[in-house]
Predict the structure.
Amino acid sequence: MECIFCAIVEGKIPSATVYEDEHVFAFMDIAPANPGHLLIIPKQHYRNIFDMPAEIGSKIMEVAVLLATAIREALNPDGLNLFQSNEAAAFQTVFHFHLHLIPRWEGDPLRLPWRPSEGNIEEISNIAAKIQEAL
Ligand code: AMP
Ligand code: ZN
């Protein structure tokens, strides 16, 4: 079965489009977490962040900045979240990279998906070193 977001880019499945350029496409999420919830995707199919070129990531981020400003202008939210999931373990359900833009209002029903609690500084430093070595 064809990827649903590729079908949206090709116009085979309708979407409420808000932005399009050579590489990037943006449309409203069909099941919005809040009014104004939209998705920014690369036109080319990449499963998620692990196989997307950094240059395409930069283009998506440029559009995120543009659209965040447009959302603020249009909807006057109190804030806005960028949200992005990679693989099922991290909540990904559509396997074509997408960045969620979710306008936020004081008192809306959305909650942080983790409970912050202080970490072990030695463990944090060891993990930082591991990530640096992997670069
Ligand atoms: P994720 O869980 O990060 O993979 O998010 C997938 C998102 O795609 C969800 O927020 C869905 O509501 C949204 N979605 C799925 N199908 C469509 C569609 N046809 N048009 C717009 N948004 C969609
Ligand atoms: Zn796709």
Remarks:
- The longest strand covers residues 99-104.
- The helical segments are 4-9, 54-75, 121-134.
- The beta strands are 17-20, 24-28, 38-42, 79-83, 99-104.
